[in-house]
Amino acid sequence: MYHLCETLGEDLDSPKCVEIKDHLDNCENCRNYFKTIETTIQFYKQYNVQLPEESHNKLLDFLGLKEDEDNPD
Ligand SMILES: [Zn+2]
To answer: In angstroms, what is the span from residue 42 Cα to ligand 1's centroid?
Structure first.
């Protein structure tokens, strides 16, 4: 499947991404959820629109990829 970490510009080899990928391989619920996310991301990419920061942050939060959320910038 299309790699979500790549979509988000995250490091594919990072432990988080590997973890997520492993989980998705074994969890149908999350696979279905990610399918809807991917569709949304593909839509934004297709029209060359930046994913709204709020959506992006929600996504990263869900994925557990937000590691420095205390950083104001
Ligand atoms: Zn799951």
So the answer is: 22
Q: State residue 9 phi and psi, 5-degree precision.
A: 75, 20
Assigned token pair, 3? 């790699």
Q: Residue 44's Cα: distance from chain center in Å?
A: 14
Residue 29 Cα to ligand 1 middle (Å):
6
Its pTM stands at: 0.52
Give residue 50 CA to ligand 1 midpoint distance, Å.
Answer: 27
Ordered alpha helix ranges (H), the chain: 4-8, 15-26, 28-46, 53-63
CA of 72 to the centre of ligand 1 (A): 30
Q: Which residues surround ligand 1, an ion (CB under 5 A)?
A: 27, 30
Question: How do residues 9-32 score in pLDDT, each as one tens digit?
Answer: 777 788 878 888 888 889 898 888
